[in-house]
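Why do we care about 3D structure at all? Because function follows from shape, and shape follows, mostly, from sequence. That is the central idea of this module. The next example makes it concrete: a single protein chain, its amino acid sequence, and then its structure expressed as tokens.
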Amino acid sequence: MQKVLGKTMVFVTHDQEEALSISDRIAVMRDGRIEQIGTPDEVYFRPRTRYVAEFVGLANFVEIQISGPNSIHLGPHELPIASGRSSGTATLMIRPQSLRVTGVASSDVNFSALRGRIERKSFLGGITRYWVRTLLGEMIVDDPTPRSWSLAEEVQIELDVERLHLLPSEKGEQSSPR
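And the structure:
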């Protein structure tokens, strides 16, 4: 209807998938205030706050140390991610589709991978969702590959470094209207 009329419309929904699929711009509200306005891509992949990240989809969150303006410490690994700060803490948001389950490699572990053990799994058609226990806690992985990993199997989780996103640290995070 909007495309036929060529008019700007405001559509209110609590269905996040619907909002992401039909909108040019989205406003996420919390307690009557706007948390973030942006394109569906911006709101989903680059949320400003943990609240927005959790509201629009499933995500893993890990408290990390910033080791420089272009790197962070994720457990024992240093990753090339622009932080804009030279030190401090932040929350790393990792969407489940930004991870991939692989077999455990030799003891020479890739810098963008974490070892873990599969605790649960659920086949969802186009993906299998795995809950993997790592040294950083439980990670949810949406894996589109046809390989089916077994419960309790030791695996490696590869991270797509280009799709990781830093949020303000959970400790003391204050949300402000925008």
